Amino acid sequence: MSEVSVAAVAVPGGGLLHEIRATLTVWEREMIRFRRDPFRIVASFGQPLLFLFVLGGGLGSLIQTGAPGVDFKTFLFPGVLSMSVLFTAAFSGISMVWDREFGFLREMLVAPVSTAAIMTGKCLGGATVATLQSIVVLALAGLVGVPYDPVMMIEMLVFLFLMSFMITALALVLAARVKQVQSAMPMVQLIITPLMFLSGALFPLSRLPDWLWWVTHLNPMTYAVEPVRSVVFDRLDIDPALRAVLDPGIVWSGYQVPVIVQVAIVAVCALVLLTLAVKLFARTE
């Protein structure tokens, strides 16, 4: 009996470098989708501009900060900037529902790479897209009395990237349990919108009712928004008493939480959510 020849199949080697390449491939896919969808880029600016100039201008006529050059739009700018990345990152993560529905997710999960690499690449892609889109809003800083300080801009972009990573990971956790595109949008609105309004993005954290104080301080988005506002107010020439009203920071029973601790909390939340997303997708697919 003649022997049957078997063609050799090259299987990619495992290891850390292989996982990094897979992560970068998923990240690159998110960049390609972003570049090929100009309408998405333009549409993403609508809501931040609406909040900043329409809401800020309307409420600014009623609310006086008491300091020259510091109107309500100046206070609102860090919150609007945070909101601009919040929704973009959320939709980047929830787009995994589309990938599942059209079969692309299954193709990724059967590839010889770990689920962790895929989810990490997705989070990095969502965070990068959201941060890039925020640059246009950041360019409007001078129109609302925020100085164009290069160090401040870099710090804000770092904080926004970390915030976007956390929100993308949260959206992936939600996407793991959503099977249809029609259910994805209501789920995002149900979870993301309260996170935004209860983060202090649109109001100061001082003089809050007790119940609202507890809710905002238990919201991880608060610890992502406050560092962005803090670096802005560090560059404003305002009276310390006024800053204590507009930007009191985060206080736990008299302890002023440093910005570095707030950033660490966001980073831990991002890692926890990413780990949960990896486990959920590994179990459900």
Summarize the structure in words.
The chain is mainly α and 285 residues long. It has one domain. The chain is 70% helix and 1% strand. The protein has 13 helices and 2 strands. It has a two-stranded antiparallel sheet with strand order 1-2. The chain starts with 15 loop residues before the first helix and ends with a helix. The mean pLDDT is 83.
TL;DR of this structure?
The protein contains 13 helices and two strands.
Question: Main attributes?
Answer:
285 residues, 1% strand, two-stranded antiparallel sheet, 70% helix, 2 strands, 13 helices, mainly alpha
Sequence-ordered SSE layout with sheet pairings:
Layout lengths: L15 H20 L2 H6 L2 H15 L11 H23 L1 H6 L2 H6 L5 H24 L11 H26 L5 H17 L12 H9 L1 H14 L6 H7 L4 E2 L2 E2 L2 H26 L1
Antiparallel strand pairs: 1-2
Helix pairs in contact: 1-7, 3-4, 4-7, 4-8, 4-9, 4-11, 7-8, 7-13, 8-11, 8-13, 11-13
Structural class: mainly alpha
DSSP helix fraction: 55-70%
The total count of strands amounts to 2
Overall pLDDT: 83
Q: Distance N terminus to C terminus?
A: 43 Å
- SSE order: HHHHHHHHHHHHEEH
**Spatial strand sequence of the major β-sheet:** 1-2
- The number of domains: 1
Q: Approximately what portion of the residues adopt beta-strand conformation?
A: under 5%
Low-confidence stretches: none
Q: How big is the Rg? A: 22 Å
Main sheet characteristics: 2 strands, antiparallel
Number of helices: 13
What characteristic shape results from the CA principal axes? globular
